[in-house]
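Data deposition worksheet. Section B asks for the primary sequence of the deposited chain exactly as it was used as input, without tags or linkers unless they were present during the calculation. Section C holds the resulting structure in token form. Section D is free text for depositor observations; keep each observation to a single sentence. Incomplete worksheets are returned to the depositor.
Section A, Depositor: J.P.
Section B:
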Amino acid sequence: MKTNILEVLVCPICKNKFDIDLQNNKLICKLDSIDFYIEDNIPILLKPEDCFMKN
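Section C:
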């Protein structure tokens, strides 16, 4: 995923900008202490309570 696109995204909970960790494929919201993962170049911006377990 291109960094310039990631810089536009904000946390869906608090609307704060993310810290970007491309090495570990995640977006980090320090204000909410939540990591949002990037899978197949797609940021997964679901709130933790909206996520489901993969089998």
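Section D:
Residues 3-50 form a domain with the N-terminal domain of TfIIb fold (CATH 2.20.25.10).
The longest strand covers residues 34-39.
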